[in-house]
Design a protein that fits this description.
The protein is of the alpha+beta class. Helix content is 44%, strand content 26%. A hairpin with a 2-residue loop joins strand 4 and strand 5.
């Protein structure tokens, strides 16, 4: 039993609350999740007003479709990789987790996360742009780790008290 308990503690200590997501994944998440607060109310009001305006100007035989948002513009790789942020990139079939330092003309100067002495330089054409993933805080993972930690503390207290 102690062996399994130690394995659980070790696995929880090695996990973290950060995940790497590509820009396409984050755009999909933003589209599927409604915004909260005043922005969503204003957006709903604007959509209703647009539909009402279109309804007034349309004839009975025309169909009115949903109001679509414009697609985001294409972003260059220099705009995607901002200094002092963490990314996961693929270069020549190798994956690197880096912190961007700066851009020197067409070259990216970065270092491996938690190893500032190991400096990497890549030309912008070497980096696979479709697989650039930005590090983001994951609230669901944090919640799972918190609940698990509280449960472990509760079981530990129960084990001490029940003896």
């Amino acid at each position: 039993m102690k062996k399994y308990l130690y394995l659980i503690f070790i696995s929880l200590s090695l996990s973290n609350c950060y995940t790497y997501k590509t820009s396409a994944e984050t755009d999909d998440i933003k589209e599927t999740q409604p915004e909260t607060g005043q922005k969503s109310k204003k957006q709903l009001t604007a959509n209703v007003a647009a539909v009402n305006q279109a309804d007034l100007s349309a004839t009975s035989s025309e169909k009115i479709g949903p109001v679509k948002a414009s697609k985001p513009r294409a972003v260059s790789i220099t705009e995607k990789l901002e200094p002092n942020k963490f990314y996961k990139i693929d270069v020549a079939d190798r994956s690197y987790k880096i912190q961007v330092d700066k851009w020197e003309s067409d070259s990216l100067v970065a270092h491996v996360i938690h190893k500032p002495k190991k400096i990497l330089k890549f030309h912008k054409n070497q980096i696979n742009q479709s697989t650039i993933a930005e590090r983001r805080f994951s609230q669901p993972v944090a919640d799972i780790l918190t609940v698990t930690a509280y449960a472990g503390i509760g079981v530990g207290i129960w084990a001490l008290v029940s003896k």
